[in-house]
Amino acid sequence: MKRIIVTGALGQIGSELVRKLRIEYGKDNVLATDIREDKNHDGPFEVLDVLDALKMYEVAKKFKADTMIHLAALLSATAEIKPILAWELNMGGLLNALEVSKELNMQLFNPSSIAVFGPSTPKNDTPQETLQRPTTMYGVNKVAGELLCDYYHLRYGVDVRGLRFPGLISPGTPPGGGTTDYAVEIYHKAVNEGSYTSYIAEGTYMDMMYMPDALNAIVELMEADPAKLTVRNAYNVSAMSFDPSEIAAEIKKHIPHFEIKYDVDPVRQSIAESWPNNIDSSRAVADWGFNPKYDLKAMTIDMLDKIGGGIK
Ligand code: AKB
């Protein structure tokens, strides 16, 4: 049975992933950690700043962890506002996670992002291997992080695995500071207020995935036969691509009075425009059977149901 330590466990992915891992591997085999205290946490929990390498080592060693899921990071929009902090946290945290994984012989999961691509990358069906010249601090962190993962795998044999996540959509803990967050906010505003003002312009396409598919992808990748993995930096994975008007039209099918307006934020718009319209996930399909279940239609039904909008 795996013994898993999760960093950034109170964030959007972490809060749902820890719940799933505890169901699959047993509550006491999954240690949630975060920089914030969670007094009501239901299961093993430790306060951990990922920049504290010694504490990361001690906590993982004491727990006898054989796997680390390293989620603590600043997302793209916040990273543009606080680029130095983004560099320190995103790079320092990952370096510590790689070092601790090397020392304790742990398997490591590192989330990368569609942000590794930039304006010179092919925009449609973006291949697994292509130009990666991002123009955001977050993208620079993610490319450097992917290279570090390759390095630790080649040089030290660390069993590191990663996914280039698109925007992740979920009804629970909200994302914070991302460019794709509009696709989460829109559902809450639709249910609670009947309208949403999008900071991303109509016609701007980005890759997206519903959280259950993202969680399955993490577990399947970490369980995959290492001999089948041809990528150690991070696999392209996407389940759908849409622009704000398409998600609005899907919501309108269930909430007919719903209206979308636009008040474009230049910072997040320019980040979105530097990213692909849709990436090609075929390598993940071939190597370990990536198979997302939710498209825009199915995700919208589930999101509205869970948020409380019901289906009319
Ligand atoms: C963001 O928008 O920053 C993230 C991402 C695509 O990595 N959701």
What's this model, at a glance?
With 312 residues, the chain is an alpha/beta fold. It has helices spanning 12-25, 53-63, 76-81, 83-104, 137-156, 182-193, 211-223, 244-252, 266-274, 282-288, 296-307, and strands at 4-7, 30-34, 45-47, 67-70, 107-113, 124-126, 160-165, 167-169, 195-198, 206-210, 235-236, 240-242, 259-262, 278-279.
How would you sum up this structure, described in words?
The chain is α/β, with parallel strands linked by helices. It has two domains: 4-167 and 209-236, Rossmann fold (3-Layer(aba) Sandwich), CATH 3.40.50; 168-207 and 241-275 and 295-307, UDP-galactose 4-epimerase, domain 1 (Alpha-Beta Complex). The chain is built from eleven helices and 14 strands. It has helices spanning 12-25, 53-63, 76-81, 83-104, 137-156, 182-193, 211-223, 244-252, 266-274, 282-288, 296-307; strands at 4-7, 30-34, 45-47, 67-70, 107-113, 124-126, 160-165, 167-169, 195-198, 206-210, 235-236, 240-242, 259-262, 278-279. It has a seven-stranded parallel β-sheet with strand order 3-2-1-4-5-7-11, sandwiched between helices. A three-stranded mixed β-sheet has the order 8-10-12. A two-stranded parallel sheet has the order 6-14. Strand 1 (4-7), helix 1 and strand 2 form a beta-alpha-beta unit. Residues 75-76, 113-115, 138, 165-167, 175, 178-180 line the site of 2-amino-3-ketobutyric acid. GO terms for molecular function: L-threonine 3-dehydrogenase activity.
